[in-house]
Amino acid sequence: MATVDLPSCSVDWCSNTIHTYRYRRGVPQLRATTSPFKVCACPALEGDSDIAGIGVITAFIAAAGLSIISTGLCLLLSRRAHGDKSHPDYALYEEAAATARAKDPDCHVLDEPPRPFNALDRFTRNWACRYAQRFVRQLNGNPTILGACFYDVVLALGDQQIVTGIAMMAAALIRIPDRDKPLSTYHFVVISDLVWFSSNAHLLALTVIRSYDDSAKPGTVERLERARRKKSAKAVRAVRAALMAWLAGLLVWASVWQGDENLYDRFQCPAACLKSSDDGKGGEPKKWMVVNIFYVVYNYPVALFMLSRRLRQWWVDRASLRIHRIAFLDDLGDRVVRGLRSVLMRVDLPAGRTLSVSAALGASIWRARPISFLIRWIPHCLWTILSSELLGFVEVVVWFSLGLWWVRGDRDYGHKLMDEAQRQTEDSWGFGQLVPWFLLVLPFMQFFESYATYSYEEACEKELKERRKI
């Protein structure tokens, strides 16, 4: 495609006629248009390798991909299938249960760990986790140690990515009103795409944090021991929650900013021009704006709730049981049926018409039972979906796939608006391209360090047990 020289404007914020591309289904269509901004001019689009360089983008994608792989392996290798006595948690549970019975003989302790509450996660553990751990043992590996190592990797990646995402979005927020070197709409959209990768990595970290070693379910080792968490751990979680809320606010702000109806017509314009546009929200950008905001509102409050062990314990011990044990629901259908029966027995029908009492009662039961079902089971079904590790993991994978499609399409479209020299500038490797890639070495270092630590601790425990036998 022949390049088009876009007329450059000084920063007088004048309105002028420029050439733009209309973005429809991935096919740019060249056309001439008049800038609809009241106070903005749209100069030629310049490349910025520190924002949209191939090294930066691939580094963010690689970090998000490592988070997905590490989370999947962590869940597979650490989760205990119901009835799997070979899992180390089974022995830990028996020891904790014996200690609890010794302290309080009247306490109710199950003979074995309870099965997972969530039906979806129970299916995954009984089929996927059991066979994955068996395969690792056949290779003379220790799935517990490997799961703990991947847990540390996920945690390190999540903390690194949330800080990086906040830093990038804050830098974009600072550069948008800069008139000397304004941030283009194209680069602002690319930054948002990269920050979504950071958000995915952090959500995956929260998935393993909330249930790996801090379970709130009755009958688990943590509940039996009633061990207090250290104040330092509480402080770290408070910091994570604050950073998470900050990132959620930035993502909502970026989504609203990019909901302009003609967003892709103004890719070369400064991002500040979107605010001064005559057009409002609409079209495909508005649809994705709604989807993005719904994703944040749907995931982040639930993740913050699940991050608090006390709130999860309140839900498991009190709220869910109270919903399930509402007394009048047990008799609601029967009361409705008895009332309708007394009414039907007194009905005088016209000549030639008959009424089947059994059919009428069946219809009344059909209408009465859903009331009990809705009030009783829908909250549990919703909580099963919201708290499921499996669905949370699949959701992040789907969002990651959408992110790949977004960042590829946005970058290709932005390069079509540049001349060849600017495209080469953006693809050049420099300081901003190499640093993100070198940071990817840290997760591997974390894995090997954790493996060495846990292996040494396991060897010490075995040696101590052998000495006790002697």
Domains (count): 1
So how many helices?
A: 16
| Largest sheet report | 2 strands, antiparallel
- The tally of beta strands, per DSSP, is 2
Structural class: mainly alpha
- Estimated helix fraction: 55-70%
Would you tell me the overall average pLDDT? 72
Would you write up a description of this structure?
The protein is mainly α. It has one domain. The protein has 16 helices and two strands. The chain has a two-stranded antiparallel sheet. A hairpin with a 2-residue loop joins strand 1 (17-24) and strand 2 (27-34). The longest helix has 33 residues, at 143-175. It is globular. The model is unreliable at 1-38, 218-229, 326-330 and 351-361 (pLDDT under 50).
Structural key phrases:
3% strand, 16 helices, 68% helix, mainly alpha, 2 strands, 470 residues
What's this model, at a glance?
This protein has 470 residues and is mostly helical. 68% of the residues lie in helices and 3% in strands. The protein has helices at residues 49-52, 54-78, 88-103, 119-138, 143-175, 185-212, 221-225, 231-257, 283-307, 309-324, 327-344, 357-386, 389-416, 420-427, 431-439, 441-469; strands at 17-24, 27-34.
